[in-house]
């Protein structure tokens, strides 16, 4: 290997093992931090020769810890961070390694060329994990999901390295766009189509005391009801202000991907809600906004992450009351309720069967996020989020975003992939009939 290899006896093992969710205590026998595709091939060959269980890791953000394997080998592609931009191409593209994050990509494509793919909020999430399961971010309502911008991928399969695109291995290319982490291979390189993004956008955050919760929820619902302006992407958050030691608050944050004056008009319904704690919407660059969002993300906490897509007609007063009541009883001040996935717009204009992504029909997704510090606090925090999810279930479709993996789902194939699952099984049988790539929520090969 050109990269590094860590075992439990090496000083770098713990930093390489620890995930974003520190509740995950899985201890692999070894972690192969790959430097390129050849290292991935070597690590995979070693695991197969030695009959070692293995997992694939990039940014380490899998909510259920599926990127680690107890006493096995972790094939870590997080150090594969190459970048080559082609801004003059038709279309303009960027080709990257799976480990690089969106802020590092934006510094080249956006700052130097005024182009961007619709990346996510968190700076330590890898572009590959983000994209292969979906890829929602501030620009997705305008331009589409991350996976909708993938034009080619290099994949290390059980039978060798292949190039997947619309012409070569189109069935595999279809599958990895939505189920790329579900057991088809290791994606070692990704090429994205880029979009022109203005140098200045209206971006920011506005917050109110939680007593304004129902009023803000109603404005958020009404804003996106029959609204075809795909330039406006606002997320909604229940948290504390200041975080985590302040008072309960409700916030909106996001951007307007168009003229600043038009953005101000689009925000009028929220400007009308009185007594905000603060209003930080202002003209700024897409990169600066992304960096500000990343600075607010808490690290080093234990978590349990649940949620689901709302039935559009059930995003109503009863659901608002359930969310506000549960948030008021959260046992940890770190916990939050977050609407950071926003459908409609360009997301909904892609045909259902164009990719393996099955969640194009809902506008809103809710993440119920329990976050805490001490092991002794685990039972009450887990119980809170489980009860919360169960009581909110009547308002949800039953679909769950696969990038927010939930190991407690009774029927994850249906929740993640819906009607696409049988077709995914066919692709799995074609490319991995011996089920080499497997974990607790990988596509099954059985008939």
Structure explained in plain terms:
The mean pLDDT is 97. The protein is built from 15 helices and 19 strands. The longest helix is centred in the last third of the chain and has 15 residues, at 378-392. Strands 12, 13, 14, 15, 16, 17, 18 and 19 form an eight-stranded antiparallel sheet that branches. A five-stranded antiparallel sheet has the order 5-6-10-8-9. Strands 1-2-4-3 form a four-stranded mixed sheet. It is globular, with a radius of gyration of 21 Å. By secondary structure, the chain is of the alpha+beta class. α11 (317-328) packs antiparallel against α13 (378-392).
Domain unit count: 3
Q: What global shape is seen?
A: globular
Separate helix tally: 15
Low-confidence stretches: none
Supply the CATH class of the largest domain. Alpha Beta
Name of the CATH architecture of the largest domain: 3-Layer(aba) Sandwich
Give the strand tally. Answer: 19
Rg on CA atoms, Å: 21 Å
In what range is the share of β-strand residues? Answer: 15-25%
Question: Which features would summarize this protein structure in a list?
Answer:
447 residues, alpha+beta, Uridine Diphospho-n-acetylenolpyruvylglucosamine Reductase, domain 2, Uridine Diphospho-n-acetylenolpyruvylglucosamine Reductase, domain 3, Vanillyl-alcohol Oxidase, Chain A, domain 3, 8-stranded antiparallel beta sheet, 5-stranded antiparallel beta sheet, 19 strands
What's the helix and strand layout?
Layout: E1 4-7, H1 13-17, E2 30-33, H2 37-49, E3 54-57, E4 73-76, E5 83-86, E6 93-96, H3 102-113, E7 115-116, H4 127-133, H5 140-143, E8 150-157, E9 160-164, H6 170-179, E10 186-193, E11 195-196, E12 201-209, H7 213-223, E13 232-241, E14 247-256, H8 260-266, H9 268-271, E15 278-279, E16 282-284, H10 286-295, E17 302-309, H11 317-328, E18 336-342, H12 345-349, E19 364-372, H13 378-392, H14 412-417, H15 421-431
Parallel strand pairs: 2-4, 3-4
Antiparallel strand pairs: 1-2, 5-6, 6-10, 7-11, 8-9, 8-10, 12-14, 12-15, 12-16, 13-14, 13-18, 17-19, 18-19
